Structure formats: structure tokens, C-alpha cells
């Protein structure tokens, strides 16, 4: 994980981050727009957010509670709670989702009748 905090980055509780996550709340150097300066801006990550690998989260981003961000996404805006977010640029792929870090269907595989002789993983 790489965090470049020029201004303000806030991360909630019970978040899960894969490898190669990149946070950047500013441009790293001055860029002056003709109307106004291009200042750094806040990034906020809510509670119980799962961010997959190789995701970039840029300034002015807000990911609300209980969201999942898909592999390789670039986040640069706000998203509501319980959303599956993915893409470049990121967008809502599915609404009304949830996830729990303590649950995996792999743990329940012993309850499923085996249909092959090999291992599951």
C-alpha cells in the first residue's frame, strides 16, 4: 500500500485492503488552473470497505460504508453505501451488496458433496 497524503486521508474501521493499493489526495506538485488552483482534497473510506488489489484512490473520493472496490479500479468521486464499485473510471456495478471479512464459502466447502477427485484450492 502506498499513501501520499498531502491534505487529508481518513480510513474507517474493519477495512480490508489487498496489495498494491495507491492513495493520493493531491497532485504531488503545483498545477495552476486558469480559474483557480488545483488544491489537494480529502479522501474518505467508510467502515467495512474491501479494496481489491491494484486500486488507485484519488482526491475528492468518498467510499461509503460496506462497499467493495474491484481489482484495478481508479476511484475519483463519491459512492454510496453497499455498492460494488469497479472500472476505469470506477462506477457502481451493483447496488445493495454486503460482505463480511469473517465469512468465506471456501470454509463451507466440506459441507458440499465432492464432484471431483482433486483439491478445491
List keywords for this structure.
single chain, 121 residues, mainly beta, UDP N-Acetylglucosamine Acyltransferase, domain 1, four-stranded parallel sheet, elongated
Task: Write structural notes for this entry.
Strand 12 (83-86) and strand 13 form a beta hairpin. This protein has no helices and 13 strands. The mean pLDDT is 87. It has a single domain (2-111), classed as UDP N-Acetylglucosamine Acyltransferase, domain 1 (3 Solenoid), CATH 2.160.10. The strands form three sheets. The chain has a five-stranded mixed sheet with strand order 3-6-9-12-13, with no helix packed on it. A four-stranded parallel sheet has the order 1-4-7-10, with no helix packed on it. Strands 2-5-8-11 form a four-stranded parallel sheet, with no helix packed on it. The radius of gyration is 18 Å and the shape is elongated. By secondary structure, it is mainly β.
Short description:
With 121 residues, the protein is an all-beta fold. The protein is 0% helix and 30% strand. It has strands spanning 2-4, 9-11, 16-17, 22-24, 43-45, 50-51, 56-58, 62-63, 68-69, 74-75, 78-79, 83-86, 91-95.
- Write the CATH fold name: UDP N-Acetylglucosamine Acyltransferase, domain 1
Order of helices and strands: EEEEEEEEEEEEE
What spatial order of strands do you see in the largest sheet? 3-6-9-12-13
Q: Structural class of the helices, strands and pairings?
A: mainly beta
The percent range for strand residues is 25-35%
CATH arch. level architecture: 3 Solenoid
Q: What is the C-alpha radius of gyration, as a whole number of Å? A: 18 Å
Number of domains: 1
Main CATH class: Mainly Beta
State mean pLDDT (0 to 100 scale).
87
Amino acid at each position: 500500500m502506498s499513501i501520499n497524503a498531502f491534505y487529508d486521508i481518513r480510513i474507517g474501521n474493519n477495512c480490508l485492503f489487498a496489495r498494491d493499493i495507491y492513495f493520493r489526495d493531491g497532485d504531488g506538485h503545483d498545477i495552476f488552473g486558469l480559474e483557480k488552483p488545483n488544491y489537494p482534497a480529502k479522501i474518505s473510506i467508510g467502515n467495512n470497505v474491501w479494496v481489491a488489489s491494484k486500486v488507485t484512490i484519488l482526491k475528492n473520493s468518498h467510499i461509503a460504508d460496506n462497499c467493495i472496490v474491484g481489482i484495478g479500479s481508479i476511484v475519483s468521486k463519491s459512492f454510496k453505501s453497499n455498492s460494488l464499485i469497479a472500472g476505469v473510471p470506477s462506477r457502481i456495478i451493483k447496488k445493495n451488496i454486503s460482505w463480511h471479512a469473517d465469512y468465506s464459502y471456501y470454509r463451507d466447502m466440506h459441507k458440499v458433496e465432492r464432484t471431483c477427485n482433486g483439491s478445491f484450492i
